[in-house]
């Protein structure tokens, strides 16, 4: 199993580290445009192998796509992150050009690959990847919902004063400050709906804190987060590599599902060796349906800024 990660910055390196530590891939290639950077990150990570007990071989490359040839899975993290006060959508001007070039180069060298798009604004970059490459829709996956759901569970556990392993929940919709739709109607503690344990007001606070999860960290860190994003990507990569048939909310091209078409947005999917093997239709409350429709309008507005 060969995995390429483009962008050896904060998220790319974290993602490579988690993939290696989980020890399911034979090879991870890190590629970056900055001279020597990916090689340096790869060497540093390889020097953790004996300490962390993994055998995955990590190599680095400065923009040489021949090193990525025949990758089973490619992850795109290249692009600029936001600074405090910015929205993800403001990154489109620079990141669209980067994602376009990177996705074409990856597919040229790995025509059978599955692509995971991370660069922001992620839903629009996933849509752009469809427009740029000829890959079938089940082989292009946007990562956002897996991260947002992890943050939702963190906030739920905090509000319930419960261990995180007791809670479950999922966030669908656009990966943006306003577009995320935390599914409170399905959130549980040990199969009991969380509304049995906390007030509607507290649950609304959980929802709002989840939606601005990325912005909160960006304000604290001065740049956007990387540990949870890297771990979330590694979860998707593992589900595909190990054919786990796990359910994650991922950004995928919709064609009528959830009443939406011609956009990529987060919905629950089953991930296995073929990439997105199924889009799962879950019942939503009226408020969640309205919020998802509003979120889709936001994503379409951002897609409209693309020069296609
Ligand atoms: N979807 C998500 O949930 C999620 C989560 C976190 C970050 N992000 C996004 O991921 C992106 C990366 O974030 P980061 O914190 O790792 O940024 P970073 O600046 O630390 O790393 C980005 C790397 O991309 C490289 N790069 C730029 N242009 C390139 C090109 N053409 N080819 C190859 N490499 C190139 C840079 O040299 C840099 O090393 C940002 O757009 C950020 O908003 C998305
Ligand atoms: O918040 C960001 O800009 C980065 C990423 O999308 C995140 O949610 O951490």
From TrEMBL:
EC number: 1.1.1.37
Main EC class the enzyme belongs to: oxidoreductase
Lactate/malate dehydrogenase C-terminal domain span: 147-301
CDD domains documented for this protein: LDH-like_MDH (cd01339)
Substrates-to-products reaction catalysed: (S)-malate + NAD(+) = oxaloacetate + NADH + H(+)
A Gene Ontology biological process term: lactate metabolic process
Binding annotation for NAD(+): 7-12, 32, 95, 118-120
Location of the active site: 175
A Pfam family per the record: Ldh_1_C
Binding site for substrate: 82, 88, 120, 151
Keywords: NAD, Oxidoreductase, Tricarboxylic acid cycle
Annotated Lactate/malate dehydrogenase N-terminal domain residues: 1-142
Classification via PROSITE patterns: PROKAR_LIPOPROTEIN
Keyword Oxidoreductase: yes
MF (Gene Ontology): L-lactate dehydrogenase (NAD+) activity; L-malate dehydrogenase (NAD+) activity
Organism superkingdom: Bacteria
Function: Catalyzes the reversible oxidation of malate to oxaloacetate.
Family, per entry: Belongs to the LDH/MDH superfamily. MDH type 3 family.
The protein's name in its UniProt record: Malate dehydrogenase
Organism listed in the record: Winogradskyella flava
């Amino acid at each position: 199993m060969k995995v390429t990660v483009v962008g050896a910055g904060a998220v790319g390196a974290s993602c490579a580290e988690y993939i290696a530590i989980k020890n399911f891939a034979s090879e991870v290639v890190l590629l970056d445009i900055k001279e020597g950077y990916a090689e340096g990150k790869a060497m540093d990570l390889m020097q953790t192998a004996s300490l962390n007990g993994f055998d995955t071989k990590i190599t680095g490359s400065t923009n040489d796509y021949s090193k990525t040839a025949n990758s089973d899975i490619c992850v795109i993290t290249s692009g600029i992150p936001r600074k405090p006060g910015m929205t993800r959508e403001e990154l489109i001007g620079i990141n669209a050009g980067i994602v376009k070039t990177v996705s074409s180069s990856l597919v040229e060298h790995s025509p059978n690959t599955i692509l995971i798009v991370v660069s922001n604004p992620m839903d629009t970059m996933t849509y752009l990847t469809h427009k740029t490459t000829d890959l079938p829709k089940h082989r292009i996956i946007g990562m956002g919902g897996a991260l947002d759901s992890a943050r939702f569970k963190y906030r739920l556990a905090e509000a319930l004063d419960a261990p995180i392993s007791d809670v479950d929940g999922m966030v669908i919709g656009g990966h943006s400050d306003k577009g995320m739709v935390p599914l409170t109607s399905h959130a549980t503690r040990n199969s009991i709906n969380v509304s049995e344990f906390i007030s509607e007001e507290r649950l609304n606070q959980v929802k709002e804190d989840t939606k601005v999860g990325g912005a909160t960290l960006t304000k604290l860190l001065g740049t956007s987060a990387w540990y949870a994003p890297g771990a979330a990507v590694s979860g998707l990569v593992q589900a595909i590599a190990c054919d786990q048939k796990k359910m994650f909310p991922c950004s995928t091209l919709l064609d009528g599902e959830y009443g939406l078409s011609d956009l990529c947005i987060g919905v629950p999917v089953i991930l296995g060796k073929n990439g997105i093997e199924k889009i799962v239709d879950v019942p939503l409350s009226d408020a969640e349906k309205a919020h998802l429709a509003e979120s889709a309008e936001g994503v379409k507005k951002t897609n409209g800024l693309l020069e296609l």
